[in-house]
Design brief:
Layout: E1 9-12, H1 18-28, E2 32-37, E3 51-53, E4 56-57, H2 58-63, E5 68-71, H3 77-88, E6 92-95, H4 101-105, H5 109-115, E7 120-125, H6 140-146, H7 167-190, E8 194-199, H8 200-206, H9 210-218, E9 235-240, E10 243-248, H10 252-261, H11 265-268, H12 276-281, H13 283-294, H14 299-309, E11 313-315, H15 319-322, H16 326-330, E12 334-339, E13 343-348, H17 372-380, H18 384-392
Parallel strand pairs: 1-2, 1-6, 2-5, 6-7, 7-8
Antiparallel strand pairs: 3-4, 9-10, 10-11, 12-13
Helix pairs in contact: 1-7, 7-8, 10-14
Length: about 400
C-alpha cells in the first residue's frame, strides 16, 4: 500500500454518525481508515437517507469518504482474530458501541492494549462509560434534549426545537478527533498509547458557553428566545419586505452605524438605547421600532445598506443558495468525487486548511466490503484461496 509506513492507520469499528464523522476527519488529513463492517448489512447508516443506488445512500455518503471497507463477522473466532491482527498494525482504534459491548466482543481497550501497547483507543458513547446513564441507548435527538440544547432553542412560548443538523453526533465526532490528535502528540513524546473517551452528552454541555455562564451567574435556566441574542441587541433576524436577513450590531459603534444608515438618528442618543445593556433592558420598546424600519426595504436593499455601513449582516440561505455561493466555492467547501457505481458525487469540503499538509478527498465512500481482499492481502498476508474460504464460511 502506497506510503503505508508513513500513514496513520486507523481501525474504524464505528457506525451511524458520531464515530464515522470522527474517522472521516482523520481520513481527510491523510490517515488510512480501515472501516470494519458486518457482512451483508454493514454500517447502520447504509440504510438511511435518499438512495443514489441500491445500498448506497445520501446519509452514508456524507460521512464516509476517504475510507476503505472490509466486512468481518467479529462474533466469530476467525473474524475476531482478523480484527485483532489489524489492531496490532494500527495507530488508532475508534469505536462507538454502548458501554460493555466491546468487552463481550473482546475488542475493549485493555484487551487491545495488550496486543498493541502504543495504541490510541477512542471510545465515543452517548453518556460516558460511568454514571447512572452510561448504559442508556442514545441518538442525537436524545442527546440534544438531555444536554440542554433543546431547552433554549426555538421560539419563545413554543415547543422546544432541536438544531436542524445532528450536532450531538457531529460534536462528539469532532471532540473524538481532537482527543485522538492530543493523544498522538503525547505518544510522540512518551511512546505511550492511551484511552480517549468522549460522549454526545459531554459535547452538548461543552457547547453551552455563555448560556451556562448565564445560568451559573443567575441560577435561572435560559429559555427559548428565537433568533435574538439574549445579551446583545440588535443581534437577530430582521424582517424585510420580502423575507428576513440577519443583522448583528454587536457593540455601540456598530449600533451608531446601524442607526445612521437607516436614518434612525434620534435613537443613537436616546437614553433607553445608548448602551448595549440599556438596549437589552429596553428590547421590547426598541425591537418594534427597528422592525418597522427594516420592513421598508427589500432583503437586497437591507444587505447593501448594512454592507455600506460595515455592520455585520447576511442572508438566511437555503442549501441551494449556499452551494451556489462564490464564497463557498472559494473555500472549496463543495467538491466532487468519482464513485465507481454512483458516478460523480457532490460532497462537502474540508473546513481546515494547512499550508504544508493540505487535506484531500482521495477516496469516495466505499461500497460494503469493497476493499476486503485488498486489506486482507496487503496488511495481513492472506492468500486468495484463504480469503475465498473465509467468504464461504461467512467470516468476511
Amino acid at each position: 500500500m502506497e506510503n503505508q509506513a508513513k500513514k496513520l492507520i486507523v481501525v474504524d469499528l464505528t457506525r451511524a454518525l458520531a464515530g464515522p464523522y470522527c474517522t472521516m476527519m482523520l481520513g481527510d488529513i491523510g490517515a488510512e481508515i480501515i472501516k470494519v463492517e458486518r457482512p451483508g448489512a454493514g454500517d447502520d447508516a447504509r440504510s438511511w437517507g435518499a438512495e443514489f443506488t441500491e445500498g448506497f445512500n445520501s446519509y452514508f455518503v456524507s460521512i464516509n469518504r476517504n475510507k476503505k471497507s472490509i466486512t468481518v463477522d467479529m462474533k466469530t473466532e476467525q473474524g475476531l482474530a482478523i480484527v485483532q491482527e489489524l489492531v496490532k498494525k494500527a495507530d488508532v482504534v475508534v469505536e462507538n458501541f454502548r458501554p460493555g459491548v466491546t468487552q463481550k466482543l473482546k475488542l475493549d481497550y485493555p484487551t487491545l492494549k495488550a496486543l498493541n501497547p502504543g495504541l490510541i483507543y477512542c471510545s465515543i458513547t452517548g453518556f460516558g462509560s460511568t454514571g447512572p446513564d452510561a448504559g442508556r441507548p442514545a441518538f442525537d435527538l436524545i442527546a440534544q434534549g438531555m444536554g440542554g440544547i433543546m431547552g433554549f432553542t426555538g421560539e419563545k412560548g413554543r415547543m422546544p426545537v432541536k438544531v436542524g443538523t445532528p450536532i450531538g453526533d457531529i460534536i462528539a465526532g469532532i471532540f473524538g478527533a481532537f482527543g485522538i490528535m492530543r493523544a498522538l502528540w503525547h505518544r510522540e513524546i512518551t511512546g505511550k498509547g492511551q484511552l480517549v473517551e468522549t460522549s454526545l452528552l459531554g459535547g452538548q454541555i461543552a457547547l453551552h458557553s455563555f448560556q451556562a455562564g448565564r445560568y451559573f451567574t443567575t441560577g435561572i435556566s435560559p429559555e427559548p428566545e428565537g433568533n435574538i441574542h439574549p445579551l446583545i441587541t440588535p443581534y437577530e433576524s430582521f424582517p424585510a419586505s420580502d423575507g428576513y436577513i440577519n443583522i448583528a450590531a454587536g457593540n455601540d459603534t456598530l449600533w451608531r452605524r446601524f442607526c445612521e444608515i437607516l436614518d434612525l438618528h434620534d435613537l443613537i442618543d436616546d437614553p433607553r438605547f445608548i448602551t448595549n445593556p440599556k438596549r437589552v433592558e429596553n428590547r421590547e420598546a426598541l425591537t418594534p421600532i427597528l422592525q418597522e424600519k427594516t420592513r421598508q426595504y427589500t432583503k437586497t436593499e437591507l444587505l447593501d445598506l448594512m454592507a455600506q455601513a460595515k455592520v455585520p449582516n447576511g442572508p438566511i440561505s437555503t442549501l441551494e443558495e449556499v452551494f451556489s455561493s462564490p464564497q463557498v466555492h472559494a473555500l472549496k467547501m463543495l467538491q466532487e468525487v468519482e464513485h465507481p457505481v454512483a458516478g460523480k458525487l457532490k460532497v462537502t469540503g474540508i473546513p481546515v486548511n494547512y499550508s504544508e499538509t493540505p487535506g484531500e478527498i482521495k477516496y469516495p465512500p466505499p461500497l460494503l466490503g469493497e476493499q476486503t481482499e485488498e486489506i486482507l492481502t496487503q496488511y495481513l498476508g492472506y492468500s486468495t484461496q484463504e480469503i475465498e474460504t473465509l467468504r464461504e464460511q461467512g467470516v468476511v
